[in-house]
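Everyone, study these two lines:
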Amino acid sequence: MNEETTIPRKRYDEAFKRSAIQHWRDSGKSVAQVARELGVNLSTLHQWKKSCDPEGSAATTGVRTVAELEAENRQLRREVVRLVQQRDILKKTLGILSAPPESALNGSEP
């Protein structure tokens, strides 16, 4: 009886696939070199590129739309306002806590 041993297929998550594709783009190395470094098949890397980035989509190239940038800008401006208010409250609190009590003699005789 001849039993075949099957090697389980490795499964990679989307983050790893995107990272591998980004490394391939940014490194300037050939796809074969990157595939060897990562321990994946050359054709697998090509398949990941097709499936993760079929048309150079904005999500994988890092390009953001004007609407996305404007929304982020609005959110960051709101956060700055909130942080400035928190800072001002903390400054006032520190001033109140560090002021000597009015009933203290401050070392002087009445």
